[in-house]
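User: I'm putting together a teaching handout on how sequence relates to shape, and I'd like one worked example. Could you take 50S ribosomal protein L16 3-hydroxylase from Sphingobium xenophagum, show the sequence you're using, and then write out its predicted structure as tokens right after it?

Assistant: Happy to. First the sequence, then the structure tokens directly below it.
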Amino acid sequence: MMQLCHFDIDQFLRNHWQKTPALIRNPWNDWRNPLEPDELAGLACEEGVESRLIMAAGDRLAMESGPLPETRFGDLGREPWTLLVQAVDQQVPDVAALIEPFRFVPDWRIDDVMVSYASDGGGVGAHFDQYDVFLVQGLGRRRWRVGPRCDSATPLLPHDDLRLIADFEATDEWVLEPGDILYVPPCFAHDGVAVGDDCMTYSIGFRAPSRAELVEHWSEHLVDALPDEDRYADPDLVRQAHPGEISASAIDRLHGLVLEALGDRTTFARWFGAYSSQPKYADTDWQPEEPADVNMARALIAAQVPLCRNPASRFAFMAQPDGAVTLFVDGQSFDCVGDGALLARALCGRGDLMVDPALAGSDTALTLIAALIDQGSVAFDEGE
């Protein structure tokens, strides 16, 4: 497995994370490009895989959404073009392995690995993102220009498909070689252009829910659970001087009614764990045709058959004060104690897990594994 050998994580987090861009010259122990261009093109032709083809059309860029016909790449002319494919980590294990060195950022923040291929001069234009990204150069060379921090007031060019900055002025510029990494914090303008053909870049992106998103979805969750009879009440009502006034005491009571519901931290934590573990791309269906056989699971654990996580699934846990663990997988929550808590922590570690053979005798652990198999989140790798 490739590792970041020449990279000071603590210094990076202290000086650059969500602060300033950082160029990291080939820090790998042995950089190897994990995906061939033809394989990426093949993924872009598949149903259920999100892909985009961006082509230069004079002084403008045009975008075409996938899946692309297999003949499309042979029809491309001499103008620069870029192919973008999302969530390649869910399709190619070697690409998924690129995430492992960046797990100094908590897993719940990880989004996916987007892979791009560009012909000479290809790019997607000057833009900014709302999330952190590590741009790992896989093949060829790419010139990156980075500009100042942007926001919702930054002028954009009129375009139906792309959010391109109208007046981009670079403050730094680098050419990345294979194995080099450029870190770009949220909202910093950046523009990457291929220098020569066979330019491949791996974009390891991170999620950051907006305040608006949290308020909207948390509120929706609460509304669904609140009974209709939970209403404003004023049993201490007294006659007021003017019937047309909304009094300060009424506002205090109404405001408190809302804040009391929104302010339940324990309920919020459980909701957020389930909400943040919902898979972004749930097309990789591992649900079995028949319910999981607990005795079969017991035998497979005893035989040291690895338990594998669905690459599209999201796993996270929250530790409880009493040593218990709340496990969140694909939008579902599981309260785990004892052996189940130990297993939950292990499941949130690596993608393939050799379950402790001692757990073959644990009904708690077997019940959890069976539930995760039934919802398509894990499966035993029996080598078939």
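A couple of points you could highlight for students: The chain has three domains: 9-206, 211-229+248-263, 294-380. The first strand starts at residue 22 and ends at 24.
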